Amino acid sequence: MLWKSEEVLFDGDAYFHSLFSEWNRAEHTIDFENYIFDDSEIGAEVVRELKRAHERGVRVRVIVDGLGASGWWQTKGLELERAGIEVRVYHPVILNLIWRRLMIDLGFIKPDRKPRRSLVLRRLNRRNHRKVSIIDGKVAYVGSINVADCHLKRIVGEHSWRDTAVKLEGAGINELSAAFDHTWIRSESASHPGRRKIRFTFRRVKAPLSDAVSLNYTTKRRKLSRLSFVSRLTSAKERIWISNAYLAPPSNIRRRLTKAAKRGVDVRVLVPQRSDVWFMPFIARAYYRPLLKAGVHIYEYTPRFLHAKSLIVDNEVILGTSNLNRRSFLHD
Measured between alpha carbons, how far is 270 from 199 in angstroms, rounded to an integer? Predict the structure, then answer.
């Protein structure tokens, strides 16, 4: 068994209710990593719960993305730091830092070691898309739910986003913790962004590879993650059921899906009819024709925006935050 226990949560209301309950039981540590952190009603609730845990003597660490949480980390992030909570920002977008990287790209500044690719694009394009919380190194939450009001029915009503998350206990949490630490040492303090020296080589945090968690924070792990995904599609015998918010699969994924459908596998793809990104439905529909022609069944979810990311291959279930597009496979 990969996990000691698993509890699937199907919307933001259930997710935050369960998460807050677990935070209230925390004794030693809370690690919280999120792509989007809005200064909103649920954002205020999250801040309040983290402060309560800190006041009980729990060590609280928070990582947010410099672009996804832009505006929050410069205000509420600093407020949390002043309260004694550790807050770090992954790749903050800072104009003078971007300018320096542009000067290196153009050759006006000569670093000790020349980068192999554009530092500006690398800084802007690499985002931390995770939504993870680890409590006492024993319990973890993983899924597609940001700190944003749009995920909660009790705040925005029937138009709340449809999401999926999972509460986990088991050995795989060690890998999630290692991934969090890896991002932590590569992120910057909310109160002193841009002061880290530009680094071109990275010390890797070693963690055992297993099927419990698919991680992509190194080049090797990204490659293994892609190969594992393709291998699952290739070896599927009965079904491939995909739920994803942003359908723009790379060519090798499209080929595996069409081949699976042609050999009799029940291939179904569920996408939202409406999106938070206005042009995404048009992009997704551009991929429909070859998939439908091969026998793939495509469904558009109509009640509200479908933001969940899940994959079922035969009797195996994978839940996470990765979209079915090149960005998730290569950059996030």
Answer: 41
Helix H or strand E encompassing 271: strand 266-272
Please, what's the b/e burial string for 19-29 (b: 16 or more CB within 10 A of its CB; e: otherwise)? bbebbeebeeb
Residue with tokens 């991002």: 183
Which two tokens mark 31? 């690690």
What tens digit of pLDDT does each residue of 17-65 get? Answer: 999 999 999 999 999 999 999 999 999 999 999 999 999 999 999 999 9
For residue 92, the one-letter residue type is: P
The H-assigned helical ranges of 26-94 are 41-55, 76-82
Q: Locate 196 and state its tokens.
A: 């880290």
Q: HEC string of 155-189?
A: HHHHHCCECCEEEEECCCHHHHHHHHHHHHCCCEE
* Average pLDDT of span 268-291: 95
Q: Both tokens of residue 14?
A: 């259930």
Residues shown for the chain: 332
Contact between 149 and 41 under an 8 Å Cβ cutoff? The reply is yes
pLDDT score for 72: 95
Amino acid at 252: N
Provide the angle, in degrees to the nearest 10, between the axes of the packed helices 251-262 and 219-235: 20
User: Positive or negative, the Cα torsion across 146, 152, 155, 158?
Assistant: positive
CA distances from 283 to 39, 248, 308 (A): 31, 7, 18
β-strands 239-243, 266-272: how paired?
parallel
Q: Is the model's pLDDT at 200 over the cut of 60?
A: no
Residues 169 and 3 sit within 8 Å (Cβ to Cβ)? yes
47 phi, psi to nearest 5 deg: -60, -45
Prediction pTM value: 0.89
CA-wise closest residue to 221 among 332, 89, 62: 332
Q: Is 236 exposed, middle or buried (0-12, 13-18, 19+ CB in 10 A)?
A: buried
pLDDT band at 203 (very low <50, low <70, confident <90, very high): very low
Q: What are the angstrom distances between the C-alpha of 35 and each of 175, 231, 254?
A: 19, 28, 27
Residue pair 128/63 in contact by the 8 Å Cβ criterion: yes
CB 170 within 8 A of CB 20: no
